[in-house]
Amino acid sequence: MEKLALKTPDITAQNVDKVAQLFPNCITESRDWQGKLVRAIDFDQLQQELSPILIDGISESYRLDWPGQKRCVVKANEPTTKTLRPCREESVNFDETKNIFIEGNNLDALKLIQESYLSGIDLIYIDPPYNTGSDLLYNDYFAEDKEAFQELTGQRDDEGNRLMSNMASYGRFHSDWLSMLYPRLRLARNLLRDTGLILVSIDDHELPNATKLCELAFGPQNYVATLVWEKGRKNDARLFSVGHEYILVFAKSLAALKAAKTLWREEKPGAREIWEKFVELRSRFGEDYKTIEIGLQKWFAELPKSHPSKKWSRYKRVDKNGPWRDRDISWPGGDGPRYEVLHDKTELPCKIPEPGWRFATPEEMQRQIKLGLVEFREDHTEPPFRKAHIRPIPEELEDEPLDDEAEEAQTEDEFATQVRGSYFYKQSQVAVKYLRKLMGAKVFDNPKDHFELARLFDYVTNSKADARVLDFFAGSASTAQAVMQLNRQDGGRRQFILVQLPEVLDPSKKSQKAAAKFCEQMGKPGTIAEIAKERIRRAGKEVAQSSADIGFRVLKIDTSNMNDVYYAPDVATQENLLGQVDNIRPDRTPEDLLFQLLIDWGLDLSLRIGEEIIAGKKVYFIDGNVLAACFDTEISEELVKELAKRKPLRAVFRDASYKSDSVKINADQIFKLLSPQTEVRSI
Q1: What is 52-89 written as a DSSP string?
Q2: What pLDDT digit, counting tens, does each position of 125-166 carry?
Q3: 3-state DSSP assignment of residue 567
Q4: If 377 and its partner were Cys, which of 113, 382, 426, 673 is the partner (CB 3.0–4.6 Å)?
Q5: Do 304 and 211 share a structural domain?
């Protein structure tokens, strides 16, 4: 029980908390008038957050600093005019799927999806470049011509200067890596739900900096854990075999997780098989629980030592709620309540455990007894014990302390559970061999194990069936397959959003030769993005017989659909103005414009798209009546009236496509009369 503060609120502390919610990187440490360390605001950082230009002048404080940090703030905050163009021919089940694959620079992608998925992502998993001296290929620009292509492939920067890899011998080795990752983490944080999490895979090269960077982006108070993934021993090592990697776990708000009483548990391996054996025996022997016990114990004895159920052979007793084991009925830590509990047979007071009873009152003890969750011994000379079922019923876990034996059940399908440790082992060659078999070539040297990722995703999302997972360093697309694998296992409706740069493969490099050849054989451009998309297609075929969503919409980052004059009317001249009566670039399709609208209005990029012909014109309807859009020319009042009668929430037309100026003028009035709630816009 919390004690009364007996003092007025600390307004300063409250204001600092409010700033921390918006800008966790602006929180530092300082000393109050008593010399006590307290949280304070870094006003230099806050000033930079609220300014579109670089601010000079940095005061000393405890924080992570590197050359270019302030530029990162500007980079993350500045808007983009780029857009996402749908690519149906590279997609799978475009019209029905809820999954998204974005091809392009992930910094642009994160900006473009800010409104559509603001506070809508349950889990972010990224496996960014580990900065080992040759893998930092992300530059903040988009390629559309030969020179820009050279920039994208790392040959030149946007000023035409030749680029080299981020070699360890360079003075900006760590700074460049930090400057690449930091703005992306800042934008990613906005996308997470209050109870959302980010998992960041990293190795020894940048673990300290990655930890500090996540603290800067998410706040040190939201650190959850650092997991160690052991992948195998390297026998050719001279000193120590460093065969592990790390996964940093940060919450958007650890306070929100605690307020939601979040408890992560995973099903104990082998528990399901025990229940299935119980069901089989019950079908044969009915309510003869003693005979079922004998059959279950015989089954345990005959199991090989390697069987996962063997570990849980303590669940050898049986009652109407299934197999159970005994557990302590005493108060944890001692000094618990002491009262009389009469034995069910001798009707004499049972021996009281030295630490006292587990239940605070005699009434609660009696309630547990009536539920059948307390088992008495042969007589009253020993305390009874509590039951722990392999499939716990909710009542046996009410007010359960969070200790190593804590278990939680919310539905009848849940089994005995356990908390995960921060260390786990899975040999890396398992994933390498699997992907080689799936793709028919060794297209990636170190793909992440999608089975292990699926297990981890399921754990930190509490098996949420409709969780949305984002990976903006998609690589080999292990995240997509992990999500599909989970949906295959439990019939869930989880969705993935992947982002991958079309990083060009170099066939002259031994490590990329097989991947480049693989793309050539497919008749596709030799990029990592192409391999990732093909991996998702092939992985989808493995789960095609299940209810899992195996499709994905491919969206490609490109320059704006609108011409230059649209954004900067001042650049128009008498010579080029007549040629730009239409605001829209001539190479753009109606679907290109449609996705621009989804972005601008902050609508889900996976919403269903419908088409109808009204008054001879094609009209797009997004998710029923969420948005109606017509991009055809010669729009008539008849079309406007028919569309207004549908009462969509939003309606959009091309600015230059009305049949006459009078139709354009009357369109607003028609909607105000027939559908006043509709928001009408033109592009």
Answers
A1: SS--------SS---TTHHHHHHHHHS----EEEE-GG
A2: 999 988 765 544 444 332 334 444 344 434 444 445 444 455
A3: helix
A4: 382
A5: no
Q: How many CB atoms lie within 10 A of CB 431?
A: 22
Secondary structure element (H or E) that encloses residue 107, with its range: helix 106-112
Question: What percent of the chain stands above pLDDT 70?
Answer: 85
Q: Examine residue 230 and state whether it is found in any structural domain, yes or no.
A: yes
Q: What pLDDT does residue 1 have? A: 30
**Enclosing domain of residue 632:** 583-682
pLDDT band at 602 (very low <50, low <70, confident <90, very high): very high
Residue 564 lies in a domain: no
- Asked if 161 and 206 sit in the same domain, the reply is yes
d(CA 432, CA 448): 8
From 522, 557, 592, give the residue that closes a domain. 557
Please indicate, yes or no, if residue 130 is contained in any of the structural domains.
yes
In the block, tokens 């579109």 appear at 52
Strand 617-622 relative to strand 609-614, pairing:
antiparallel
Beta strands in 161-222 (DSSP E): 192-202
Domain boundary pick from 374, 395, 417: 417
Same domain, 100 and 239: yes
Structural domains of the chain, count: 4
Q: Collect all residues with Cβ–Cβ distance below 8 Å to 72 and sequence separation of at least 6.
A: 178, 179, 182, 183, 186
Q: Which two tokens stand for residue 28?
A: 């530092």
Tell me how far CA of residue 51 lies from CA of 47, 71, 73, 606, in angstroms. Answer: 6, 11, 9, 34
* Cα of 349 vs its chain's centroid, Å: 54
Q: Are residues 277 and 364 in the same domain?
A: yes
Distance CA 255, CA 262 (A): 10
